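User: Can you recover a sequence for this backbone? Please restate the input before giving your answer.

Assistant: Of course. Working from this structure:
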């Protein structure tokens, strides 16, 4: 049974894994046996995470790549370098993302574009480059990190909502084109998870009590809550799960 979820010998690239949710997803995959390529934009922060992971899992299983997920040529170069120097990528987690809170009437086009590029276009760019090899090899898992905003809107985060909604349909589009080549592409849609990105919301008493009241589970999610679903979607245990977006939100998206 445990073999179903064993990732030993499989290489996983997790974008935005220098901190936050990506870092914990990378740890979950490494705990399940994967060799992990940690990633971020800030080289110093990435190096600190690499050092910590290397101490935990050994230097043979921990690698790193530093590039901007919105830069098409940097993505192509990095994926090619990883596959040549480290080996074929079997699992890709498109996790890198940003938030930008401002009312829609005040939203600058440049900020709209930055949020769309980082949360949506990046999954296309990195996904396309990695899928080239996966399709050729006839196997691969792609997990796109969506959000409850994939389904639910809220004031001040319009670009993020549009990007995360688009990411679910990109997941379906990737499935339509690549599933027959042995790839499984799915989304994970976390609810409100306590990380650096949301610390200001946790600290905001009004927002915090809204979350606790609005979530059937009556608590914020933790990064540990995402580990099981991520390992499942990265493993043989999900080989006939295609194009789905799994909400891990304490039930928030199914109640009003
Ligand atoms: P975070 O703590 O702010 O971490 C973001 C990560 O993405 C960092 O590693 C960052 O690297 C990287 N990144 C951002 N822009 C990048 C770029 N242009 N190129 C390369 N790397 C880039 O965020 P988080 O809260 O863990 O969120 C991770 C994902 O989960 C996002 O997609 C987010 O939308 C989603 N999510 C979060 C929550 C939540 O409650 N936190 C809920 C639902 C969904 P650098 O530090 O080097 O820039």
């Amino acid at each position: 049974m445990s073999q179903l979820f064993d990732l030993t010998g499989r290489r996983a690239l997790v974008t935005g894994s220098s901190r936050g949710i990506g870092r914990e997803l990378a740890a979950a995959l490494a705990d399940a046996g994967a060799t992990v390529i940690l990633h971020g934009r800030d080289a110093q922060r990435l190096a600190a995470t690499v050092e910590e992971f290397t101490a935990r899992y050994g230097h043979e299983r921990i690698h790193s790549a530093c590039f901007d997920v919105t830069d098409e040529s940097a993505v192509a170069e990095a994926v090619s370098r990883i596959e040549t120097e480290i080996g074929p990528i079997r699992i890709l987690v498109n996790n890198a993302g940003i938030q930008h809170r401002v009312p829609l009437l005040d939203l600058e086009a440049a900020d709209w574009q930055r949020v769309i590029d980082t949360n949506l276009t990046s999954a296309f760019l990195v996904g396309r480059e990695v899928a080239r090899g996966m399709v050729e090899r006839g196997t691969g898992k792609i997990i796109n990190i969506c959000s409850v905003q994939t389904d639910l809107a809220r004031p001040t985060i319009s670009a993020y909502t549009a990007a995360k909604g688009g990411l679910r349909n990109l997941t379906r589009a990737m499935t339509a084109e690549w599933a027959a080549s042995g790839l499984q592409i799915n989304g994970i849609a976390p609810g409100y998870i306590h990380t650096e990105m949301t610390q200001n919301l946790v600290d905001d008493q009004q927002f915090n009590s809204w979350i606790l009241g609005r979530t059937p589970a009556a608590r914020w999610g933790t990064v540990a809550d995402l580990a099981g679903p991520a390992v499942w979607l990265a493993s043989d245990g999900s080989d006939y799960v295609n194009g789905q977006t799994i909400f891990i939100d304490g039930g928030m998206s199914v109640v009003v």
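That completes the design. Residues 16, 18-22, 40-42, 45, 68-70, 95-98, 118-119, 145, 147, 190, 192-193, 195-198 surround NAP (CB under 6 Å).
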